[in-house]
Design goal:
Blueprint lengths: L1 H32 L7 E13 L22 E7 L2 E5 L12 E3 L5 E3 L6 E7 L7 E8 L9 E5 L6 E10 L1
Antiparallel strand pairs: 1-4, 1-5, 1-9, 2-3, 2-6, 6-7, 8-9
The structure holds calcium ion (2 copies).
One calcium ion (CA) binds next to loops.
């Protein structure tokens, strides 16, 4: 009985061995032919830009344009800067009413090519006569958000929140 059992094991091993070898070489071949270069990130498209929260009052407690009777609300725009070079600027939304989020459309979408470089995003109230009021800013790096569709930048106290929609472009 023992001898027969061994024979069975050996013959099974002979049957299995070539098939093992075959499947292994097939797997190797598969990894070679399927070894296309990994997709490389070539750019990040900003697909949307909006301000969900904006402080109603300047640091002095007054409205942003308290000097302008009848038009005391801010004239909002956003600038993006990389290494002190302008990357993008939105249109100005005049006398923002605070009734709904600020949604920018002009020039959007646009592509960020230097996506590993920090971006400073600044929110302003345009004034014209005097220097524009800097409402607030954030510095961030896109690579911290890789593959995410939205970056939300928010002050700890929640008074200023920016939402930036993203599309990741691979080649
Ligand atoms: Ca102002
Ligand atoms: Ca203004």
């Amino acid at each position: 009985m023992k001898l027969i059992a061994w024979c069975l094991v050996i013959s099974a091993a002979i049957v299995v061995a070539p098939s093992c070898k075959k499947s292994k070489s097939a797997a190797e071949g598969g990894s070679q032919s399927g070894g296309r270069a990994r997709r490389t990130l070539v750019g990040v498209e900003v697909t949307s830009l909006r301000i969900a929260e904006l402080p109603r009052y300047a640091p002095n407690g007054e409205k942003w344009d308290s000097w302008a009777p009848g038009a005391a609300e801010p004239d909002v725009y956003v600038k993006m800067v990389q290494l002190e070079n302008p990357l993008f600027a939105t249109e100005v939304i005049e006398d923002y009413s605070f009734s709904e989020p600020v949604v920018f459309a002009s020039g959007i979408p646009f592509t960020v090519k230097a996506f590993t470089t920090d971006i400073r995003v600044e929110v302003f109230d345009e004034d014209g006569i005097t220097a524009d009021d800097n409402i607030g800013y954030f510095t961030f790096n896109l690579m911290k958000y890789e593959k995410k569709e939205m970056v939300t930048l928010s002050r700890p106290d929640g008074t200023l929140t920016l939402e930036i929609g993203l599309r990741w472009m691979y080649q």
